[in-house]
Every structure is written in C-alpha cells, then in structure tokens.
Write a structure and sequence with these properties.
By secondary structure, the protein is of the alpha+beta class. Helix content is about 40%, strand content about 15%. About 30% of the residues are buried. The structure holds zinc ion (ZN).
Length: about 290
C-alpha cells in the first residue's frame, strides 16, 4: 500500500526571495523594526532612546568615539527596514520579524562572491546575485509554507481501512543549517490511520515543505512526524530519512557516498518492535 511520489507534487511555487544567509542582518532588522514602531509614538526629546537605537549607537560609537555626542537621526536607519511580507502571518515565527529587501540580499551575494575570491563585476557573474536570490525563493520556499495546512483535508470515508499506510522513497533536497550546503535523499513515512487518511501526495509535500528550509536531518525527521501526529492523530507513525550530506563529501572529512539514517517512531511503532520491523521490511523490500 504505497505510491510513488509524483514529481509534479514536489514543485513548490516560487516564493519571495529569502536571505537566509545573513542571520545577523535579520536580527538587526528586528531591532530596527522595534525602533520604527517606537518612532510612531511621539516622544519628548529627553525620552530614553529605544533599545534598538541605543545598541546601534553603541556599535557606531565603538568605531568612532569622537562622534559620540551626535545622536543618530531616525531617517538614517529607515531605509534599512524591510517591510514585513504580507505572507508573514503564515510563516514560521523565525521570519515573521522582517526580512531584508531583494537589493540587500543581492548585495550580500556579491559580498560572498568577493569573499570566495572572484570578481562580481566580471561578465559571467554580473547576473549571478539576482539569479541566486531568485533560486533562494524556491530552495527555501518552505519558510512560506504551512505544513499543517497541507494536511487539512482528511478523507474519513476509507471503508474501515485501518492498516498501515506507507509512502516510501519520497525524494527531497535540503540544505544543512551549519554550512548551507545541500543534503539530499529519500524519506519514508508510515502511519496507522484512526480518524482518516490524507492524500498520498500531501505527505510528499510535507517533506518538501520542511526540506526547503535550513535543516538538520534530525530536526526534519521529527518535524515530519510532529505535523502528521498533530493533524491526523494516527495510532502510530514511523518516519525514516536517509540522506547524503554534501558538507561531509565536499568539505571536512571528505567522505562521499556516506548515508545518514534518522528515524522517528511514535505510538504503535514506538511501543512494538515488531511494528518497526514491519515498517523497515516494507521500506526495504522493493518489488
Ligand atoms: Zn553541514
């Protein structure tokens, strides 16, 4: 009882470019957003400066102590404040705090190109920052997606079917959160339905949603199990992810062909080793 995932279902819509590369800039934007909010409220000249502005001043003063007495005028920092995307409400908390503009993201790519030792102005690289930022919209489009919503539609009329539902060999491509280097492989998901089943392609899209974020394989495996557990309330759920991490193959220990396997067993699968054996047998025994 399984289905090969349809490759079309793995295609996510292109989302807004996400500059996941620059966490520091994110937190800066967050502080600046606070500053903007507090500027909305009229203040007396003697009012204490909001925390964000105070720490900004602190940073600048460290570099140029002689400028210390001059307060930084508010308009100077305004252009750095990226507007909240309208989709922010349905995104994970992490990016609901404002994000840099496309121009800022492209500038960051140019900086990394220079850091790598190349010239961002040479012909072959001139359009690369724009292409990278556009690609990020797809590679990290999972931040714009809500995995809960994918599983909203539960089919309850399954003629009493309550045995295992297994979707195996779901291909995915993700990026490790430590090096932002790809890791890719296959996910296998099984559950024992209680209140109904979901469309099989939805499970593949759940995998896709979590894969298109910066991840660790362990976290991704648990997130897949968590969302299926919370929506479907199955009698048991098993998730296995096997992947090759390019950050291991291309850098560090430089070992290619090593696969990492992570599993999550919940409910019946956790309590009964025979259920785990059944799951692993179904995953491994291919026709
Ligand atoms: Zn890594």
């Amino acid at each position: 009882m399984y289905a090969k995932p349809d490759s079309n279902t793995m295609t996510t819509r292109i989302a807004r470019a996400e500059d996941a590369m620059d966490a520091a800039l994110k937190s800066l934007s967050y502080r600046l957003t606070e500053t903007e909010d507090s500027r909305m409220t009229p203040k007396t000249p003697d009012a204490p400066r909001p925390n964000g502005a105070a720490s900004l001043n602190g940073m600048r003063n460290d570099n140029a102590p002689t400028l210390a007495p001059v307060p930084v005028p508010a308009p100077e920092i305004a252009p750095e404040i990226a507007p909240l995307p309208s989709s922010a409400k349905r995104t994970p908390e992490a990016i609901a705090t404002g994000r840099p503009s496309r121009e800022e993201a492209e500038a960051a790519v140019r900086t990394l190109l220079r850091w790598a030792g190349d010239d961002p102005n040479r012909e072959g690289l001139r359009d690369t920052p724009a292409r990278v930022v556009k690609a990020y919209g797809q590679l990290f489009g999972g931040y714009e997606q809500d995995a809960d919503k994918l599983l909203e539609r539960v089919f309850e009329e399954v003629e009493g079917y309550s045995d295992i539902v297994l979707v195996r060999d779901i291909p995915f491509y993700s990026h490790c959160e430590h090096h932002m280097v790809p890791f890719m492989g296959l996910a296998h998901i099984a559950y024992y339905p209680t209140k109904g089943v979901v469309g099989l392609s939805k499970l593949a899209r759940v995998v896709d949603t979590f894969a298109r974020r910066l991840q660790t394989q362990e976290t991704m495996t648990a997130q897949i199990a968590d969302v299926i557990e919370s929506i479907l309330k199955p009698r048991g759920i098993a998730v296995m992810v096997e992947a090759e991490h390019l950050c291991m193959a291309m850098r560090g220990v430089q070992k290619a062909g090593v696969s990492t396997i992570t599993t999550q067993f919940r409910g019946a699968f956790r309590n009964d080793p025979n259920e785990q054996v059944r799951f692993l047998t179904l995953v491994r025994n291919k026709p």
